[in-house]
Amino acid sequence: MAKRTPGLEMAKSILPKAIHALGRKQETEYYAHWVMWHWQEIVGEAVARHVRPLSIRNRVLRLYTPDSVWANEMRMMMPQVIGEVNRFAGGEMVKEIQFSRSFQAQEERAECSAREAKERDIGRARAHISLSAETMEAVRSSCRVVEDEDLQAAVRCLYRKHKQMEALRQEDGWHDCPSCGARIESEECLCFACRRKKRAAIRAAVRSVLRDMPWARCKDVRAFVPECTPKLVNEARALLVQQLAAEVKLEDDTSLSAKTLVMLYACLPPDELTEDAVRRTLYRLRFDLHRPKDYKAPKRYAIIPLGRKRNG
Fold first, then answer.
1. Of 45, 73, 108, which closes a domain?
2. In sequence order, what are the beta bridge partners of 57?
3. Burial of 221: CB neighbours in 10 Å, binned 0-12, 13-18, 19+
């Protein structure tokens, strides 16, 4: 029996080299699909029956499970799952895991492919934009101030592409930001910078309301700041609680700062603010309050008396 020709490589060793030669993007996509194909081998048959992988994008692994128990289990196992996925992929493929409420793998792949196709076609669409003779003459006249011929040609090419891109965006329905005048996509109302300023202004307004009404809940804050959300209110409340807790001492239950902290943390209006509520809330926040260097944690019942919680 003839021997095999020496020096030939196995397919399993040639394939990774060929994928690597295609470029980083193709290699990342290949190993992302490789992880999803071998999901059962990575997490085991029991997990794979209840948890399905949807996609891997921007180092985020999206999973779907109709069972909340398995979702909680996967959250607890997140570091181990991330480690196993990266070990199977041979590199840092995933940094985070998110859960989807519905199984939309095919729809997500179609959406991703459409977005990638749109991104790939931008350059081709721009190249097909024809500029008018007046625009081309304006481009040439603007670049004549550059004395070096090679540099002038490069600047003229860039300026022409810029004009083509402006025309393409106009065809796609881009418009000016009503606040600053920057060009934005048709579905956007404000540019990124203006949206960020608007969110900062809303946060500042929410903090102002909470300073005046520490007990206010989201519906109360909305009467003054209609655009606020529960998330913004909770973030502003947490920030103010941290700031006040750094100033209030554990044994201080009579000062205005201590009472404001209790109203802010427990959402208690002034007419429901009792001595017992103040003591209990400050004890709950004891690890966040101001403590001297020689501080010793008190016993629970030195702060909160035995018995049921009293309402008045």
1. 108
2. 60
3. buried
Does the pLDDT value for residue 4 go beyond 70?
no
CATH of the domain at 37: 3.30.300.180
CA 143 – CA 303 distance, rounded (Å): 78
Contacts 24+ apart (CB under 8 A), 85-93: 85/35, 85/42, 85/61, 88/34, 88/35, 88/38, 88/41, 88/42, 89/31, 89/32, 89/34, 89/35, 90/31, 91/31, 92/59, 93/28, 93/31, 93/32, 93/35, 93/56, 93/59
CB atoms within 10 A of CB 233: 23
The structure's pTM equals: 0.48
Helix (H) or strand (E) holding 52: strand 52-57
Which of these three, 81, 108, 135, is where a domain ends? 108
CB atoms closer than 10 angstroms to residue 309: 8
Give the chain's domain count. 3
Q: Report d(CA 152, CA 146) in Å as an integer.
A: 5
- To 10 degrees, the CA torsion angle through 111, 114, 119, 125? -150
Q: What is the mean pLDDT of residues 96-119?
A: 58
User: Cα separation of 32 and 49, whole Å?
Assistant: 20
Do 131 and 229 belong to one domain?
Answer: no
Q: Is 293 in the same domain as 216?
A: yes
Q: Output the six-digit token pair for 178.
A: 């009503």
Region 126-136 average pLDDT:
86
The residue length of the chain stands at: 312
d(CA 174, CA 152): 30
Residue 120 lies in a domain: no
pLDDT, greater one: 295 or 155: 155
Identify the band that residue 93 occupies on the pLDDT scale cut at 50, 70 and 90. Answer: confident
